Amino acid sequence: MTERTKITLDESEIPRQWYNMVPDLPAPPPPPLHPGTLQPPGPQDLAPLFATELIRQEVATDSYIDIPAEVLDVYRLWRPTPLYRAHRLEKALNTPARIYYKYEGVSPAGSHKPNTAVPQAYYNATEGVKRLTSETGAGQWGSALAFACAQYGIDCEIWMVRASYDQKPYRRTMMETWGATVHASPSRATKAGADVLALHPDSPGSLGIAISEAVEAAGGGADTKYTLGSVLNHVLLHQTVIGEEALAQFAAAGESTPDLIVGCTGGGSNFAGLFFPFLREKLAGRANPVIRAVEPAAAPSFTRGVYAYDFADIAGFTPLLKMHTLGHDFIPDPVHAGGLRYHGMSPLLSHMYELGLFEAVAKQQRECFAAAVTFARAEGIIPAPEPTHALAAVIDEAKRCTESGEQKVILTALCGHGHFDMAAYERYLSGEMEDFELSQERIDEALTRLPQVP
Amino acid sequence: MTERTKITLDESEIPRQWYNMVPDLPAPPPPPLHPGTLQPPGPQDLAPLFATELIRQEVATDSYIDIPAEVLDVYRLWRPTPLYRAHRLEKALNTPARIYYKYEGVSPAGSHKPNTAVPQAYYNATEGVKRLTSETGAGQWGSALAFACAQYGIDCEIWMVRASYDQKPYRRTMMETWGATVHASPSRATKAGADVLALHPDSPGSLGIAISEAVEAAGGGADTKYTLGSVLNHVLLHQTVIGEEALAQFAAAGESTPDLIVGCTGGGSNFAGLFFPFLREKLAGRANPVIRAVEPAAAPSFTRGVYAYDFADIAGFTPLLKMHTLGHDFIPDPVHAGGLRYHGMSPLLSHMYELGLFEAVAKQQRECFAAAVTFARAEGIIPAPEPTHALAAVIDEAKRCTESGEQKVILTALCGHGHFDMAAYERYLSGEMEDFELSQERIDEALTRLPQVP
Predict the structure, then answer these.
(1) How do residues A7-65 score in pLDDT, each as one tens digit?
(2) How far apart are CA A423 and CA B169, in angstroms?
(3) Chain centre to alpha carbon of residue B123
(4) Do A108 and B73 touch (CB under 8 A)?
(5) Which ipTM did the prediction report?
(6) B253 at interface of A, judged by CB pairs closer than 8 A
(7) Taking Cα atoms as reference points, which of A375, A408, A410, A401 lies closest to residue A95?
(8) Which pTM was predicted?
């Protein structure tokens, strides 16, 4: 055996603190705004929906926040996650680049989502909440929350977009195995859902409708709260365990810091979780990675959206967030990377993109699946559709290194496995997968309905 | 955090040798017999089907066999696998028992099968074989072989039982993602398959038919060989990396050796892989575990079969193996644990059972799925249907400890995850899963067709 393939850490090396990027930025991100008053919402505006501690973390100015022992006790079921050196992929690409991937698919739900689902369930449980609601599209977030709620003995109620509910019954069963209740959305369990069904009895649903239902259901009483699996600051905060571990693993492997960090972006949490700790090092002059987001060409908020105040949901229930957006009622074409089909972007990441702290590219899905198959045959792991976007960009860069002879060190986030996405692989392998061209007219049209903020 | 949950080893601690149980037994196992001559087959009888090195390992008398560097290089993609202390399950059961599980679901294919698929593909590749054939029922073995063949650049052709092919398209796509060709069996690609289709155009297939097709296809030329994923000595040998690692992990955790080792048995390889190294220690007076096999009540070869020479396949193509059998044309009821639906048992394990080296119990599937849901809600991991049998027996014992106050140390093999088996969970959770009563008449009837061996 040559150099190490799998750099593992002992469970005693799980980070004890989450890293808050905000205080280290050259300028603070613009605040959210209440859509009525156009003033920043206070804690009292968010308290009916979110646990108090999560609201506190959302606006925290501390650089580090302690991870509670009861959260660490669940994290250690799968954390620290392995950092892999992709020896076999490098060989397949004949590249002098050294490729590393941080693999989050070892979690029970199969992605990075439990990193935030677990603390969200924990804080709610400690504050006396008996039931959490949320929405899920492809099912990754719903699975993670169902698992997390089972750990702390609280109920979990998920609104799953009808199209996914019908197409991905196994994700639904996974949530039910962990004890969650799963509704197809639109449902008759909420007024928001019933209103949609009255107009469109056969509605396939959308993430926007599902959010509206979960938010409405959480408003019903003090013992029920709502949770969100991406976009918000506290979610990105919780995901920094990924990058903190990767930093320790690079040190353990005696490897220099990465020359390039690549991650896929939907709401942005897995990408942020990986690179925030490395950016801290860069801002302190201890590392100098190029940082690159990869988004789907079907939902290119960074590369083709505008930076403006917009709603996080279709119905306009949420505060206004300043972010890269394609318009809150823009519906991305049905690419298989359901976790990236979002009109907007994390406000914190959007702010940082404006500051020039990282770059972004967009990829079509067939190129991504080609990269995924190359990766799977070399490394064994079959990736979820979302991180195939990052893999496609990694392979691009590795091939450039083959031509230039550069021995770049590349780090990427392999944020989940594709065990529940094999139908997408079937379509790719059978030649039936399509790419979607997104016209500028469609984007411009959706942007005409941006809320007016002076 | 209290005591460790996840006992990991560094990749430098992957075992360097497989352990051969045979020389340490008080008596050697009876040889296989050629069905025509009733004499033990020589290497020349097996050479058309199997790689030379695998035939050598099948009859090896060395206690240890070196693992080639090229196999270790692939093993380290997922090995060493974690040993978990089931703190949260113990708490849910309120038991003083200390429960450990060795988790093989972290392999790319999601089970223990790659432990033998990788060396089988490697030895065949080094001997100039260009194509491997095999059969698969539920898809675990076929997936593992497809992955292994991709690692060494050889072709892989799998006959998948038609019923599974139709019901589990995602396992099939997984094999295709790794580059394998998958046939629904019975197929028109072989005479054996075509003969069945001529009589039964709508045949759902069976493992016996699929074996016949894969064996026939391997007979076509010197560059094609056949592989088997369980039952044979060399398969059990390769699986001993599981138990060797677990021994090292018990030592690393400062834990005493187990009082009880529990594993599920279909062909027997995952169970053998876990307990052989512990039994070596027991025979040497360094440990004293009770060892318990758990088989499905629908295929109870140990507990209700006879110990006799029989064919390993329905068609009678294989040598005669002395084993616990329900009769080679006995078709188990359609329980969800497809990997345990086998009429026979590893001849080596059968011999050892006769020697009294371990005990066996049988379980109905609803009890097993109840155990699986308890396990999943406590520990996060959703088990494959096969190891739920072992988990049910572990929970039995843990509850006995709750009553007696005994602090037994229990070790089990969690040989795979259930990500491709969620339909079974759906049936269980919806109350539609059935248990099957197996009448003595059905067993007796199948046993009337045992081959006559004086």
Answers:
(1) 999 999 999 999 999 999 999 999 999 988 999 988 888 888 999 999 999 999 999 99
(2) 8
(3) 20
(4) no
(5) 0.95
(6) no
(7) A401
(8) 0.96
